[in-house]
Predict the structure.
Amino acid sequence: MEQVKDKSNNNESTTMMKAIRQHEFGGPEVLLYEDAPMPKVSQGEVRVRVHAIGLNPPDWYLRDGYKALPPEWQPKVDFPMTLGTDISGVVDAVADDVTAFNIGDEVYSMVRFPTGMMGDSKAYAEYITVPVSEVALKPAGIDHVHAAGAPMSLLTAWQFMIEVGHNEPNPLQPNPHVPVPLKGKKVLVNGAGGGVGHFAVQLAKWMGAHVTAVASGKHEAFLRDLGVDEFIDYTKTAAEDVVRDVDLVIDGVGGPSSDRFLCTIKHGGALFPIFPLGFSGGEEAEKRGVTVSATQVRSSGAQLAELAFLLNNGTIRVAIDSIFPLADARKSHERAAKGNIQGKIILTVA
């Protein structure tokens, strides 16, 4: 890509930065804290000095080489590779064709997703370049740690439940994903304590739905504080055994087990599995008159700008599970592997 003159206040004499890179697929041990070239802005980009990074499941899926996918779908990447998409930080350089942002602006973003999902987003680093269409001003009422926890998980919930926000073909199904009206509806959120789940709960309540949250007992007080109407501890009770006639199930866990929720949904209702791969209940869903739909979350600076208002005034809160310095990215992935995450795991950059 053509490099262009930038309007930074320094001569960019420093060409190296610290980043987390991996030279092979594997477990958390492959994540190495090392020197990497500092990126330079190209047309239509800003460069951000990163203050905080939010972790997401695609990070550990890619770190491991997407082993759960069929071999023909597994990524071919160029090593060394840097993971990550979600950042909050301060603009330190802008391309000469950029007028919407200035040096010193505090911003947040989900960077190059899904286009860069094979390691081209590069968020686990001190600096990152971001297309201006994917960046928004950080909500002034929250810090960088909480802002970094929002982008992918909140955009996922928003695009599944409120507004898709783009016309790109849906790679997950032949028909477009269409959110359903939520006001006055009964909504069940599975995996309600996790990254996407805790945002789905809040958006459903904001839109006027009656919300049942399914999570482990550890999360009950947390989720009731977010306003859920009913709580089911899945370690004691299977939701599919006790719930009926809901209008929408948001399955924040997804996968092959999503079909167990079909019996909880009324005729004309919908099931939205956040992770739809492996779902095999299509025939039963058709018999029950249930729409099963998913979509691929996509970067959107415009939607992040819209969501900044809800984050700033406290309508939507970002829960933080744990915080690690960038150098300890390995430990952050070890935490993720233990599961039962409440909210988001964050890396901070000194």
About this structure: The CA atoms of residues 17 and 36 lie 5 Å apart.
